[in-house]
Amino acid sequence: MQKLIEISAETLNRMSNKNQIIIWGAGGTLDDIINSFPEYEFEKKISCIVDSYSRKCNTSREYRGTCLKIYRPEILMDAPGNLKLIIASIHYPAILKQLDAMGLQMECYRFPKLKYDFQKEKKKMFSIYHDLMILNEEPIKLIVLIAGQMRLIYQVKLLDRKGYNDKEIGKFLGVNPYRLKYIRQEGKSFDLNELLKCLDELSKLDVQIKTGKIDKKMGLELFMIRI
């Protein structure tokens, strides 16, 4: 199996000045790669994107007003010698096996998924909560806000997994496609199962508060500590 080298954003930028960059993977890590390039330069640096998921192939993703087409992996068979393949997926072992099966030998690099500062967002959420309490707003209002945002994150992640592009997702959910980048950023700390669990807990908390089984402030604070 081919060797996989982890690469930083700085090294990727330097490498792209002299080599042709092809990215395998059209998921969330692709956003991190594109955001690592200076504004308006990524379309010059990235030759193309490939993905083995059939629903994503022959579609396109829009970034900063530029449409990037997603191709099938077979396009790599005609790739030039100065190609650098960046694997933007957690499924890199399977991708390396697929490259071996295709008889391709090339330099492969892995761009690590950037860590999302969820603790910072958690502090922001507590700040909003305390502001609502100062204004004598009901905790139930924050529950509605959190549930609505988590539901939106879940829907975007699910549609991403199914291979829909930004324009289709925006139309389905009634969301401006330019907002999707920030929604994905908020959802980086969660997988689909975790989001479903949080939504279920919020639903149960709502019922417990309304039926008087738990103090509304205590119940919400305990939920925010747990997530």
Q: At the first level of CATH, what is the class of the largest domain? A: Mainly Alpha
**What is the CA-based Rg, rounded?**
21 Å
What amount of the residues lies in strands?
5-15%
Which stretches are low in confidence, meaning pLDDT under 50 for 5 or more residues running? none
CATH fold call of the largest domain: Zinc Finger, Delta Prime, domain 3
Shape-level CATH architecture of the largest domain: Up-down Bundle
The biggest beta sheet is recorded as: 7 strands, mixed
Give the overall silhouette: elongated
Quantity of strands, as a count:
7
**Mean residue pLDDT:** 78
- Number of helix segments? 10
Q: State the helicity in percent bands.
A: 40-55%
Give the SSE layout:
Layout: E1 4-6, H1 9-15, E2 20-24, H2 28-36, H3 42-45, E3 46-50, E4 60-63, E5 66-71, E6 83-87, H4 92-101, E7 107-110, H5 118-134, H6 139-161, H7 166-173, H8 180-186, H9 192-210, H10 216-226
Parallel strand pairs: 1-7, 2-3, 2-6, 3-5, 6-7
Antiparallel strand pairs: 4-5
Q: Quick recap of the structure?
A:
The protein is α/β, with parallel strands linked by helices.
